[in-house]
Predict the 3D structure of the following.
Amino acid sequence: MALSERELSEVVSIRHDLHMHPEIAYQELRTAGVIARELRGLGLRTIDGLAGGTGVVAHLPATGEADVSGARGGARGGAHGGGLASVGLRADIDALPIVEQTGLSYASAVPGKMHACGHDGHTAIMLGVARVLARVRRPRAVTLVFQPAEEGGGGGERLCDEGLIEGRITGTPIAEMYGLHGWPDIALGSVGTRPGPLLASTDELRVTIRGVQSHAAYPHQGRDAVLAMAHCITAVQSVASRSVAPTDSVVVSVCIVQAGTAVNVLPQTASFAATLRCLKGSTRELAKRRLSEIVSGTAMAFGCTAELHWEDGYPVTHNDPALTAAWFELADGALGRERVVRIEHPTMGGEDFSYYARLCPSVFFCLGLNPGGAERTASLHQPEFDFNDAAIPLGVEMFCRLATRE
């Protein structure tokens, strides 16, 4: 279940190449080309052009099972439900619009874009998995998923809509799904997860407050949209403190505020945007309703109106309890209990792995990246972040063990 030294060196080189050539959501043409080339070089049946054009899937039948489904490289066909159900393993492949500040020899060569979330590492791990699984016994079929547009683009949802889980892409349905994420807060050489909610839902609220413009010296002649917006921004925090139980989790963060063109003019409009994070579907609906009521009512109290626009984000990433228990049993046996972290509390970050988890039993887990020591480890989405190459072998081993679990 391990890469040879030569294979590991090649996989690390691929990771560095991907890091140098980051591509953001639905623009991962070069990245998808590298992936497809590597998979086909292993003799694996590879389907590309998925999820808007940059998604790639490889299918490995169980050892001794003929791969008779109709899909072929570059095609999306395949007999629905043909063959035995497979194990799905997912890697995300997109980068972020961030200016890299690592100073690495393989730093981003694309201005304003970088792999600040480690998806280059996830992709390299999955290519390593492909190398191992191509030469070992496979008791079950395995579907390797290279998914575009995790960073807000919902590539996972598009693959689900195209029938990945039901088997419309490969001809073989997926019975269970696994994904991982490099995690700077967990020690290198360790993995961790939890049953139930692991990551939050992610919705966006955009608000335009409309008042009456006036000279700043004569505010009584207008309706101050900026003042109304300021009170709205303060009031929405009451959702967490007064609308939701103290034992529940909700985050409302206002991150964009825009208003005005001159220092002596009270503008007609003011706008702000916020993110809403929740761990329960019921809390998500309650919070959205209360936010809409609070913003509309507060704006009205100042003689203004509020236009609200919700952009539904990713659902809660929910780990199947029974499958998570099996994951812990496998990880404990392979690594020793001391290297397996029982994550106590969910994180309020989000993941579009959640779409797979809604359709089949799934487990999303964290792969430790932190080498320890006095030097600070950059966190996800920071311009100094780089995936730790030393974590690649463990990521490959965990995925391979999960894929071949009987």
